[in-house]
Amino acid sequence: MTRHFIGTTEQFTVGATKLIQINSRNIGIYRLSDNRFHALLNYCPHQGAELCKGPVTSWISSSSPGEFQYDKEGEIVRCPWHGWEFDLQTGCMVVDRKVRTMTYDVTVEKFDVSIDQGKVYVEI
């Protein structure tokens, strides 16, 4: 893996996505409110949409009608084309485990992000 300098922490706004290009990869960089950084390949495995241009939301769950709970606030990215949701931390698709449909292996490439004296790096 190669370490790539992508900017200083001040160049990344909390809650906003910054798209960068490294070699032939288009990558979305996310800075969360607790100053964690995550990076995802800007490609939805469903039909190739620019995943990182989708809204960043929460995971909404419900234990009964009319009751809603918001989890992972600002940590879920929703594909702008078809609404598939992915966890920024793991790159995995978020699904309701009670509902089953035909299954496919779905992955979103995730990159390690590190901060060294205020400089942000991605390892690819």
Task: Produce a short descriptive summary.
The chain is mainly β and 124 residues long.
Written account of the structure:
Strand 6 and strand 7 (85-87) form a beta hairpin. The protein has strands at residues 3-8, 17-22, 25-31, 37-41, 56-64, 67-78, 85-87, 110-116, 119-123. Helices cover 0% and strands 48% of the residues. The strands form two sheets. It has a six-stranded antiparallel sheet, with no helix packed on it. The protein has a three-stranded antiparallel sheet with strand order 5-6-7, with no helix packed on it. The chain is built from no helices and nine strands. With 124 residues, the protein is mostly beta strands.
Q: What are the salient characteristics of this protein?
A:
6-stranded antiparallel sheet; 124 residues; 0% helix; mainly beta
Helix/strand-derived category reads mainly beta
What is the global morphology?
globular
Strand order of the largest sheet: 1-9-8-4-3-2
Number of strands: 9
**Poorly predicted runs:** 96-108
Rg on CA atoms, Å: 15 Å
Distance between the termini: 5 Å
| Biggest sheet record | 6 strands, antiparallel
Q: What sequence of helices (H) and strands (E) makes up the elements?
A: EEEEEEEEE
In terms of DSSP E residues, the strand content is over 45%
How confident overall, as mean pLDDT?
82
Helix proportion of residues, in percent? under 10%
With helices defined by DSSP (H or I, 4 residues minimum), what is the helix count?
0
